[in-house]
Specification:
The complex is a heterodimer of chains A (about 110) and B (about 110).
Chain A: E1 3-5, E2 10-14, E3 19-21, E4 24-26, E5 32-38, E6 44-50, E7 56-58, E8 64-68, E9 73-78, E10 87-94, E11 102-104, E12 108-113
Parallel strand pairs in A: 2-12
Antiparallel strand pairs in A: 1-4, 3-9, 5-6, 5-10, 7-8, 8-9, 10-11, 10-12
Chain B: E1 5-7, E2 10-13, E3 19-24, E4 31-37, E5 43-50, E6 53-56, E7 65-68, E8 75-79, E9 88-95, E10 103-104, E11 108-112
Parallel strand pairs in B: 2-11
Antiparallel strand pairs in B: 1-3, 3-8, 4-5, 4-9, 5-6, 7-8, 9-10, 9-11
The chains are: A mainly beta (about 110), B mainly beta (about 110).
Chain lengths: ~110, ~110
């Protein structure tokens, strides 16, 4: 069975501070992993994806994530938070030959304090 | 390039009525997915469709809910005899193929009076 766990439903950081959003997955086969961001009253936008190439993945808006198989983790980071980063972030895993079903975490709400 | 288009953005129905949610995938995308998002929760997969075929409906409630993706026109998520518990945001996503990133619409927010 596949699943995603996001530790911390709410994270607050000061503007300019490091952003770290945690994601752990469970999968019996090599997964495809994704991070999405959702702004209020909008759909999800893809931040970055891991598809078994480089383990350190760079995405948009200065975000990056590192795939660590030994820890079954895919944490999202950004060196310096900006006010515009305040949003809901979702980690997702896609597995299997069909890869049709995405399993989403319950999300982490990021607040950036000026 | 138009993204995934969902309409209406907001839909209000009374208990017992029918709700129809529409989704036009991105150009060139033949895979469509529907998700439901409840307040303070993540997205829950409902159904995966390709043109004229339901591939995976393991997340769909057994009753009152149905989905289609006809050869021509948008994908439709249909909820019959709506109840208060159906109030949620319903998101559609599309992708060009398997294990490819899914591109999301802005959702339809369904409110049941």
């Amino acid at each position: 069975a596949q699943s995603v766990t996001q530790l911390g439903s709410h994270v607050s950081v000061s503007e300019g501070a490091l952003v770290l959003l945690r994601c752990n997955y469970s999968s019996s086969v090599p997964p495809y992993l994704f991070w999405y961001v959702q702004y209020p009253n909008q759909g999800l936008q893809l931040l970055l994806k891991y598809t078994s190439a480089a383990t350190l993945v760079k995405g948009i808006n200065g975000f990056e994530a590192e795939f660590k198989k030994s820890e079954t983790s895919f944490h999202l980071t950004k060196p310096s938070a900006h006010m515009s980063d305040a949003a809901e972030y979702f980690c997702a895993v896609s597995v299997g030959a069909t890869g049709n079903q995405f399993y989403f975490g319950t999300g982490t709400s990021l607040t950036v304090i000026p | 390039n138009a993204g995934v288009m969902q309409n209406p953005r907001h839909l209000v129905r009374r208990r017992g009525q029918e709700a129809r949610l529409r989704c036009s995938p991105m150009k060139g995308h033949s895979h469509v997915y529907w998700y439901r998002q409840l307040p303070e929760e993540g997205l829950k997969f409902m159904v995966y469709l390709q043109k004229e075929n339901i591939i995976d409906e393991s997340g769909m409630p057994k009753e009152r809910f149905s989905a289609e993706f006809p050869k021509e026109g948008p994908s439709i998520l249909r909820i019959q005899q709506v109840v208060r518990g159906d109030s949620a945001a319903y998101f559609c996503a599309s992708s060009p193929g398997q294990n490819q990133p899914q591109h999301f619409g802005d959702g339809t927010r369904l409110s049941i009076l």
